[in-house]
Structures are given as structure tokens and as C-alpha cells.
Write the C-alpha cells for this entry.
Amino acid sequence: MKYVRCILELQPLQPATDIFIAALADLGFESFEETQKGLKAYIQEPEWDETAFLDIPYLNSELWKVNHRWEVVAPENWNAVWERDYTPITVREQCMVRAPFHPEPGGDIPYDIVISPKMSFGTGHHQTTRLMLDYLLDLPMADKSVLDVGTGTGVLAILCGMQGAKTITAIDIDPWSYENAMENARRNRQDMIEVLQGSMGCVSGREFDVVLANINKNALVELMPELASALTGGGSLIISGFYRNDLAHLKGVAASDGLDFCSCRESDSWTAANFSKKVGTA
Ligand code: SAH
């Protein structure tokens, strides 16, 4: 999968940087790198919409100056960037996510996840991945069936497997992620994870105790009816990939699909939320 990298020079840096991160996340940008001059933001090439980008009103603000350009990043470059910048992360001293070339952690970390990210999203470096891992650490997994929508590297599905979930299905529309999630599942001896390429259509009619979806606000809004109907009564939906300001909207959409809001967690304004499906709802 190729990416488009948008390079923004912002003067002054704040609050423009935060405002652009939020606006670009709404357009489907997946990752952001703050630089000395502004921001680099990445979006999958098929999602890139030049007109929508140029329509961002903040490009013409009187409060700051913006220079912008964009370029297509070949998968090889993307890969190199990940490998260069990839350091292990640890969530609550319980779960480490690291690359194959990092040393194993000492004995006190129960979940040691090895990820070779290639071109997929999900190394634990993004706040939303860490928020999802944080939620999973609190969830009893034994005997649970899990669906991971937008699995990326497979990192969330792999933790569920290590925590003893009964069955795990991981889906992603991106062919790179499909290949990469399968490879990482094997690498972490979680071969029981069923990896499928596609969106919710590939699990239609099936129900799960836990549904995970770390994608983006627009995709979550669009997929919410299908996410809700893929849950058993009493099951949990955990979502992320959106900002604090979008939580109210997502809560409303979830409520109209029969989901009760339980809690939310935040990191740098990125938010994750947990919903439960009413028992006896279709
Ligand atoms: N679950 C990982 C990766 C999240 S990135 C983590 O938490 O870190 C979001 C992923 O969702 C991307 O790999 C993207 O290809 C996938 N995606 C986007 N829209 C989707 C859809 N409608 N159905 C399935 N996957 C989708």
C-alpha cells in the first residue's frame, strides 16, 4: 500500500499543529509526525482526496502561515521509516510490543508481542493502539470470541490470543495488512487467529463477545450498525481512532444501534471508548 505524505510548515506551530492533526484525522490521515517546522501526516493513497484537503478552512487562517506540499511514499520507504524509528513500547508493565530485532524483555512482562510492521499500522507507537491494548488488559478473555476490525499488524488480535480468547477473527481491507497480520500471528504462535481480507461483509451473520475497531471517526460512524449487529447481547465494543471532540457524535450513533456507553480513555486527545450491547437486542 502506498501512502501520501503531506508536509505542512506552520508558523507559529501552536495551536495550528493540534488543529491540523484533528482536521487531517477527520479526512482519514492515519499517522502524524511533529517536526521542527510543523507536521508530516500520512494517509493511504486511495483515501487521499486533494479537493477535501484544499477545502480545509484552516489553510487560509489569519492566525498562522501555512506552506504545504504532498508526495507519494513508496512502500519501501515507509517500511524503512518504521524500522528506523521503531523502539519497543510497554503498556502498564504488562504488555510489550517490539520488533524481532529487539531483545526479549525480562521475565516480569506477561505479554511479549513481536511485530514486524512492514507496511501496516499497529506497532503500539500510536496513542490509539496503546489505548486499545490498555482496555484489553482489563478484559476477561477466557472463552471469549473476538472480532478485530481493521487489524493492521494484528497486534490487538495477538494480545487477545495471548490472554486466552477462545476464537479470534481479524479482518482488514488492506492486502498488506492481511499478509502482515497472518505473518505476525504465526510469529507470536497465535496461529488460531482467523485472518480475513475485507470489511464487515466477510463476517456477516456471525456474532462475537468482543468487537474491536481502531480505525477512524468516519469509518466508525459508517460501520457502527454492522459492528453492533456483530455483537452478542451483553458483548463489548471497544473503539478508537478518533479525537475527544468526536466522542459525543459516536456515542449518539452507538446509542441508536442499541449500544450503551460504558467508559472512555484518552491520550493526547486521542480517545478510546467501550460500549456494551443491551441483552436481548438483535
Ligand atoms: N488494529 C491496529 C491497526 C489500526 S489502523 C491497531 O490498533 O493499531 C486501521 C486499520 O483499519 C488499517 O489497517 C486499515 O487498512 C483498516 N481499515 C480501514 N477501514 C476498514 C474497514 N472498513 N474494514 C476493515 N478494515 C479497515
